[in-house]
Amino acid sequence: MLIKNIIRELETFAPTAYAEDFDNVGLLTGSENWEVKGILVTLDTLETVVDEAIDQNCNLIVSFHPIIFSGLKKLTGRDYVERAVLKAIKNDIAIYAIHTALDNSFRGVNDVICQQLDLGSRKILIPQKGSIKKLLTFVPKKDASAVREALFASGAGSIGNYDHCSFNLNGSGSFRGNEESNPVIGRKGETHYEEEVQIGVTFPKHLEKSILKALFDTHPYEEVAYEVTTLENENQKIGMGMVGELEEEVSETTFLEKVKKTFGTGCIRHSQLLGKPIKKVAVLGGSGSFAIKNAAAAGADIFLTADLKYHDFYKAEQKLVLADIGHFESEQYTKNLLAAFLKKNFANFAVVLSKTETNPIKYF
């Protein structure tokens, strides 16, 4: 088993194409062609975590947070980042970070938070823009079915709970090949008219390469006429944060007590309680102050996130309750999610859940 096999499977779950632009996801150290001995799954890759990987004979660390976030100009071991990276390189340990790719996954970080709180009717809070593309191509009528099925098989034509979605328009296509052409239909130098079908399908952007390969492999023409455009449509399955609902409404204090117990946080910093029951809940693991307006617009009674600053709490404006449950606490179940996914897909392979405590914040 090679590291690239592990990465390929992880990217079916949380494609790095959907990570935020500021992020640094993917393989950070090592080679994708290394043979895997074992996988250690962690929230953070600290020097102590690398030590744990060495002890557990794991040469691949799958980490939620990237230890290398901005560029490294030197590797002298002067801080915790450089020490972790140096030790990983010295011991031939690869580090793969998934971070906001998993944040934006429908079955990722925020879905786990919702599961822990028994929230139903889940929806993405901030759908990611530019994540849906559209392919238009023109195919001889007799070949349209084969091309269409190949596109479906490669992942095109899936919309929400439906697949095999396409729009087909019959028409007449024309072309004339020059002296260097080798037309499958018609003769070079002569204008040819052919009954064609215009096939239109949408697809998630991370599948573009495989979908175009399927098109080129099955299309009969020497030169394939096609166009790919990026749509502004909202993607129901990709984006930051989630909104869900409790089966029955509860008081604010009852809900906050459940949150505190569920996530084991030392304290919950929150805005003024409004004396209203909690039914609709918005969540965003990690730093989520940028989503306060989105949570309010979604009609949430409370917004659970982390790293709220003093002035952020004013943004509640009596519309909802803001609750800072802690950065680590909000993301702590993420490594369990990753470990479960890897164990399911690599059942005969050593996948170890890190036992190293990486939360830098303590409560007195």
Walk me through what this model shows.
27% of the residues lie in helices and 27% in strands. With 364 residues, it is of the alpha/beta class. The chain folds into three domains: 120 residues, NIF3 (NGG1p interacting factor 3)-like (Udp-n-acetylmuramoylalanyl-d-glutamate--2,6- Diaminopimelate Ligase, Chain: A, domain 1), CATH 3.40.1390.30; 108 residues, NIF3 (NGG1p interacting factor 3)-like (Udp-n-acetylmuramoylalanyl-d-glutamate--2,6- Diaminopimelate Ligase, Chain: A, domain 1); 100 residues, 2-Layer Sandwich (Alpha-Beta Plaits), CATH 3.30.70.120. Strands 5-10-12-13-14-11 form a six-stranded mixed sheet. The longest helix has 12 residues. The model has no long low-confidence stretch (mean pLDDT 95). GO terms for molecular function: metal ion binding. Homohexamer.
**What is the overall shape?**
globular
Largest sheet: 6 strands, mixed
Instruction: Report the sheet-strand fraction.
Output: 25-35%
**Nearest-angstrom radius of gyration?**
25 Å
Coarse structural class:
alpha/beta
Mean pLDDT value: 95
Helical fraction: 25-40%
Q: Helix count?
A: 11
> Going across the major beta sheet, what is the strand order?
5-10-12-13-14-11
* String of helices and strands: HEEHEHEHHEEHEEHEEHEEHEEHHE
Number of E strands: 15
Report, as a whole number of angstroms, the end-to-end distance.
46 Å
GO molecular function: metal ion binding
Binding site for a divalent metal cation: 65, 103, 327, 331
GO cellular component, one term: cytoplasm
Family: Belongs to the GTP cyclohydrolase I type 2/NIF3 family.
